[in-house]
Amino acid sequence: MVYKIKYSNLSIITLNQNALFLNSNWSERSVIKFINKVDKIVLLIVNNPEIFPKWRSSAIRKLVIVKQITMFYEIKKDTINILLFWNNYQNPSNLIELLNK
Fold first, then answer.
1. CA distance 61 to 49
2. How far apart are CA 89 and CA 78, in angstroms?
3. What is the DSSP letter of 53?
4. Which ranges constitute the DSSP H helices of 26-91?
5. pLDDT tens for residues 46-95?
6. pTM for this predicted structure
7. At 15, is the pLDDT very low, low, confident or very high (cuts 50, 70, 90)?
8. Between β-strands 60-66 and 69-76, what pairing exists: parallel, antiparallel or unpaired?
9. Taking 90 as the threshold, does the pLDDT of residue 9 lie above it?
10. CB-CB contact of 10 with 80 (8 Å)
11. I want to staple 14 with a disulfide (CB 3.0 to 4.6 A). Which of 47, 48, 75, 85 is the partner?
12. How many angstroms separate the CA atoms of 79 and 70, rounded?
């Protein structure tokens, strides 16, 4: 099956926030490496969407992109919905709130 990728508004915002953080605290090269890693992971998910574990007992799946950032996504029929790029140093209760929306 061929899956479509759909980025939620929140995923776009959080991806940009994380890229801006990398750019301001590290380097443009770090941003490029991060974005390339996200692209590779998305291609991996398109070919095998269930490769990463479920988050808690929900249908949402998670994967660590780099130790500081985790991506959350869900599979809906023929679409993979990218939900959020989470900075792991944030308050976890905020994550639960965002993913329950």
1. 9
2. 32
3. P
4. 28-47
5. 999 999 999 988 899 999 999 899 999 999 999 999 999 999 999 988 99
6. 0.93
7. very high
8. antiparallel
9. yes
10. no
11. 85
12. 20
Q: At 52, give phi and psi (nearest 5°).
A: -100, 155
Q: Are 35 and 57 in contact (CB under 8 A)?
A: no
Contact between 37 and 65 under an 8 Å Cβ cutoff? The reply is: yes
Bridge partners, residue 72, by sequence: 62, 84
Which regions of 1-101 does DSSP assign to beta strands (E)? Answer: 4-7, 60-66, 69-76, 79-87
Torsion over CA: 72, 80, 8, 40 (sign) = positive
Instruction: Compute the distance between CA of residue 53 and CA of residue 38 in angstroms, rounded to an integer.
Output: 17
- For the cut 80, the answer to whether the pLDDT of residue 13 exceeds it is yes
Angstrom distance (rounded) from CA 40 to CA 70: 14
